[in-house]
UniProtKB/TrEMBL annotation:
Residues 107-125 have a biased composition (Acidic residues). Residues 106-133 are annotated as: Disordered. Transmembrane segments: none annotated. Keywords: Nucleus. SUPFAM superfamilies: Nucleoplasmin-like core domain (SSF69203). Pfam families: Nucleoplasmin. Its main location: nucleus. GO terms for molecular function: chromatin binding; histone binding; RNA binding. This is NPM3 protein. It comes from Eubucco bourcierii (red-headed barbet). GO terms for biological process: chromatin remodeling. One of its GO terms (cellular component) is nucleolus. The gene is Npm3. It is found in: Nucleus.
Amino acid sequence: GCELTASTKSYTFQVDKEDDSDHILALSVVCLTDGAKDECNVVEVIGRNHENQEIAVPVANLKLSCQPLLSLDNFKLQPPVTFRLAAGSGPVHLAGWHRIVPREDASFEDDDFEDDDLSEEEEELAPIMPAKK
């Protein structure tokens, strides 16, 4: 997790470029914490789209008197990603999880596939007959 305030408006989560694992970052909850004023606090996520262009998307608009907490149901992001307090003075706490998935050799090996299993399944299927007109 991290906390965004008037003095610390942004936090960037990034991984080592040399790391060959897949990283999944999920945002679970965004909430106002002790000391927050009754003002709109807008939290943005800054990342990259499929064309590798930087984009900023607001994900939460919190106000102490009407919506102090927002559940984002494990909103998945791909690092690097920056969380920014675009409006308000916070403090806003962000919580979630980070999963590291090692990349494995995805090559297809013929030894792992048995032709006998496929042919048995094909034999059990009834032939498809053309429709009568």
